[in-house]
Known about the structure:
Layout: E1 6-7, E2 10-14, H1 18-30, E3 37-42, H2 58-65, H3 70-77, E4 80-82, E5 84-88, E6 96-100, H4 113-122, H5 134-140, E7 161-163, H6 166-179, E8 183-186, E9 189-194, E10 201-206, E11 211-213, E12 216-219, E13 236-238, E14 247-253, E15 263-268, E16 271-277, E17 282-288, H7 295-304, E18 315-318, E19 322-324, E20 328-329, E21 332-334, E22 340-341, H8 349-363, E23 368-369, H9 371-397, H10 405-412, H11 417-429, H12 442-451, H13 468-488, H14 492-499
Parallel strand pairs: 2-3, 2-12, 3-8, 5-15, 12-21
Antiparallel strand pairs: 1-23, 4-7, 5-6, 9-10, 10-11, 13-19, 14-17, 14-18, 15-16, 16-17, 19-22, 20-21
Helix pairs in contact: 1-6, 1-8, 8-9
Bound molecules: flavin-adenine dinucleotide.
Amino acid sequence: xxxxxxxxxxxxxxxxxxxxxxxxxxxxxxxxxxxxxxxxxxxxxxxxxxxxxxxxxxxxxxxxxxxxxxxxxxxxxxxxxxxxxxxxxxxxxxxxxxxxxxxxxxxxxxxxxxxxxxxxxxxxxxxxxxxxxxxxxxxxxxxxxxxxxxxxxxxxxxxxxxxxxxxxxxxxxxxxxxxxxxxxxxxxxxxxxxxxxxxxxxxxxxxxxxxxxxxxxxxxxxxxxxxxxxxxxxxxxxxxxxxxxxxxxxxxxxxxxxxxxxxxxxxxxxxxxxxxxxxxxxxxxxxxxxxxxxxxxxxxxxxxxxxxxxxxxxxxxxxxxxxxxxxxxxxxxxxxxxxxxxxxxxxxxxxxxxxxxxxxxxxxxxxxxxxxxxxxxxxxxxxxxxxxxxxxxxxxxxxxxxxxxxxxxxxxxxxxxxxxxxxxxxxxxxxxxxxxxxxxxxxxxxxxxxxxxxxxxxxxxxxxxxxxxxxxxxxxxxxxxxxxxxxxxxxxxxxxxxxxxxxxxxxxx
Length: 509
Ligand SMILES: Cc1cc2nc3c(=O)[nH]c(=O)nc-3n(C[C@H](O)[C@H](O)[C@H](O)COP(=O)(O)OP(=O)(O)OC[C@H]3O[C@@H](n4cnc5c(N)ncnc54)[C@H](O)[C@@H]3O)c2cc1C
C-alpha cells in the first residue's frame, strides 16, 4: 500500500434515515468478506425527516443489487408503480403534460425521432409528441405491466419506479443491513472530536459519554450536516437565486381514488403541490417560496387541493437549495440531505443518495482510499448535482404563466451557463445535448421542452431525404402500435392486487 493510501477497518454512519440505512445496506453487502466493521448511529429521539416517497427507476437497480425484487419492495412498503410525473398548470394554467420514464418514437436513418415529428408539425400535423410514448400512454390510462425484458422496438421501451412509504423503505434497508452484519446504536451524538494533527474526525461522543472512533465517517444526519458542516465547516453553495422555493408543508390523506401510476405535480401561485399515491394513503405537499406567500397561505392552498380526509396536522420544512461544497471532506463523506438539497420536483434526492453510494462502492474495490479518489468523488458529485439542478430550473424558466410575480421572476431569471447553452442548442438546432453525469437523458429533456412548448425553430434537414408520405405513414403506425399495446395492458390496480398485496377499499374496487 502506498503512503497516501488510507486503510479502512471501521466505518461509522451517522443517521438512520433513508440515506443512512441505504448506505449501511450497500456497505454491509459490499464489505461482506472484508474485515471492515460498519456501525450506524441514529437517534430515535430525534427521528427522521419522514418524507421522500417518489423515486425514479434507478432505485430499482439499487435494491436489486441488495437481492430484493420489485415485488418484495412493493409489498413491504405499500408501494404503487410510477411511470412518470404529470405536470399540471406548469406551462400555463389548465395545461398538462407527462414526463415519462421512457422514450418518444423511433429514430430512423440516424436522425432522432423528434425531427420527423417536427417536420410533420410544420406541415400542420397536430398530433402531440405524447402519442409516441408508451410510458405516457400507459400513465394516462392508469395501466401497468412490467416492461418486456427484450423490447421488440424502441416503441416498447419504458421504465418505471415506485411511490413508497419512506419509513417502511428505511426499515427494509435496515433489515438488509443488519442481516449483512452492520451494527446499530440508538443514541444521540453530542460531540464530534477532531484530530488536530490532520483535521480528520477521530471520534463521535454519545450522550452517555461513550466515544466511538472510526477510520471513515459517513454523514447521513440530514439537513444540518452534523459532521460535514457543524464539525468540519465544509461550506454550502446556495442556489436559491435559481431555485426560489425554500419551504414545504406536507400532509398525508386518505386515498380519494384508485392508486394511479404517476405522481401529480400541480403548479400554484408561488410554488407547486405534489400528490403521491400509495396503496393505503396519499402523500401531499406544497413546495413554495416564502418571499411570496406565508405558511398559512401555503397550508390553505395545500388543504384546499386535497380530496381525501387528512390524517394528521400538516408538517413544515424549511430548506436552502444547494450543495455541500465538498461531498467528501477529510475522512467524512456526506450522503443524503447532509450533502445538499434540491426540491423534490423530479424526485431526485433518493436518486442522488444511490449514485453517491454507487460511486463509493466503486472507490472501495479494496478497503482503502487515497486523495485522488476523494477529489474525483467530489468532482463527479458536483457535476451530478449541477446537472439535476439545471433540469429542475428548466421547469421554472420555461413557464408561461402570467398570474403572479413568482412565475414572472422565474421566467426572467438568468440561467447557469451550461443550461443556457443546452437550451440554445435545442432551440436553434433541435439537438438534445447530453452532458456527462446527467441522471436525466435526452428523452426526459424532450418531455419537458415539449410540455412547455419550447420547441426548435428548425428540424434536421436529413429528414427531407425521406418522402413525406413515408414519414406520415411511419408515424401513423407508431401511434397505432402504442395504442394497441396499451389496450393489452391491465389496469395498474389489477397489477397491484395480483402482485403487490393491494386490497382496494370496497368503494374503490
Ligand atoms: C418536503 C420534502 C419532500 C421530499 N420528497 C422527496 C421525494 O418525493 N423523493 C425523493 O427522492 N426525495 C424527497 N425528499 C428528500 C428525502 O426526504 C431525503 O433525501 C431522504 O429522506 C433522506 O434523508 P436523510 O436520511 O438524508 O435525512 P433524515 O431523514 O433527516 O435522517 C437524519 C438521521 O440523522 C439522525 N441524527 C441527526 N442528528 C443526530 C444526532 N445528533 N445524533 C444521532 N443521530 C442524529 C436522525 O435521527 C436521523 O436518523 C424530500 C424532502 C423534503 C424536505
